[in-house]
Amino acid sequence: MKNRTLRNTVVFIIALGVVVALAVLLGTFRSSSVASQADQPLSPEQMQALIPRGRELALAGDCFGCHSQAQGPMGAGGLSIPTPFGTIFSTNITPDKQYGIGNYTRADYHRVMRDGIAPGNRNLYPAMPFVFSHITTPDDIDALYAYNMSIPAMPVPNKANTGVFVLPVRPFMNFWTLLNFPDRKAPHNEQRSAAWNRGAYLVEGLAHCGSCHSPRNFMMGLEFSRALQGGEIDGVAVPNITAPSLAKRGYDVPSLSAYLATGVSPQGTSFDAMYTVTHFSTSAMNAEDVNAIAVYLLTDASGKLTTPSAPPAPLPQAVSPESGTPLATGRLAYMASCAGCHGLNGEGIPNVSPAMKGNAALAMENPQTLIKVILNGVPTQIFKNGQRMYAMPPFAHRMSDAEVADIVSWIRAEWGGQGTPVTASQVSAQETAVK
């Protein structure tokens, strides 16, 4: 009797689990957060009037930085987004009716931005940051829709995804969203300034700064409880951009605003993925929004703007390294290979190479980013204020892993205040290392 009862209980639990799993798979628990205003089409006059506002919002969201190839037409998609499960290619978001979003209604567009669901009840992958655009107001989504529909239509087919994404896995995104898509609200604090509230709305929403600058769980979902505390992309550390961390690296509102608006500041220049952000997004935004982002990021939990720290002083072991030690070897390697551009004292050369002294990348606890730069180099970069930085060559073929480790250790000790030695194994572990 007991065995039968136990067996029946197990069968019931399994059956219940199957029913619940099917319900999740079919999207039973996915509710729409689309405002009722989206049911009524916008008139041509309304669409036209919303275009300027939509353009500014699209810039804040860096929509075309992801949905355009470097040498391709704006919004036509095709940019590769690597994940541990395969590569996703961004889609055509021009108003082309065959390959783009030309057939999207106002309500369709709202559901994409608010719920991450495309027409045909098709789940979007979170490479499209709907977990952030979810908090965008209905009026702002209307403006984005109007602007999106005003750009030239490009009849460019979408590229096929790779890996697991070639399989019919979109329904399984319902499980992912159940666990990783909280119903977030736009931050608002009556006790804070208008600039802080505007910055909060942008950073936590369309600008989706936390998409790169926050840790992710094993499902690649954002850990919102640790928002902006730094992340990792392609094996490279992405810096912590909370107020205390930014202040520790010397940023204040003017310098962070300058960095976002131009890509250049005393703390260094933007490069890699951040160069795309500053070049195509923040440098084209209006100054008020850029300043608002800086104000929000540099305001601490008590509501006060943080005070920037001075650049870290050289560590004693870097100033006078003992002969034959890794730091001594690293110092000599810097003088031989780096000082010609970056200066004997790390002062850099305007329009040639950034300064090492005060450079925020050197003060990061995780050395991965600096290792990547030395191994792979940086291409020539042109910034919106007329400045440029010439290409830094890759050193992967010129230095051994041990030599790279030594030079990174010395640079970080000399200008980054970081005394933990970097090992050859940390260099060889970089996926981007070229042998």
TrEMBL record:
Care to name a GO molecular-function term for this sequence?
electron transfer activity
Annotated Gene Ontology cellular components are: membrane
Residues that coordinate or bind heme c 3 = C338, C341, H342
Sorted keywords for this record are: Electron transport, Heme, Iron, Metal-binding, Transport
InterPro entries xref list = Cyt_c-like_dom, Cyt_c-like_dom_sf, Cyt_C_IC, Cytochrome_c-type_DH, Membr-bd_ADH_cyt_c
Co-factor requirement: heme c
PROSITE patterns in the record? CYTC (PS51007)
Annotated residues for binding of heme c 1:
C63, C66, H67
**Residues that hold heme c 2 according to the record:** C209, C212, H213
The protein's matches in Gene3D superfamilies, at most eight in alphabetical order, are given as: Cytochrome c-like domain
Q: Which domain of life is it from?
A: Bacteria
Q: Where is the Cytochrome c domain?
A: 49-152, 194-301, 325-415
Cofactor details (free text): Binds 3 heme c groups covalently per subunit.
What is the protein named?
A: Mono/diheme cytochrome c family protein
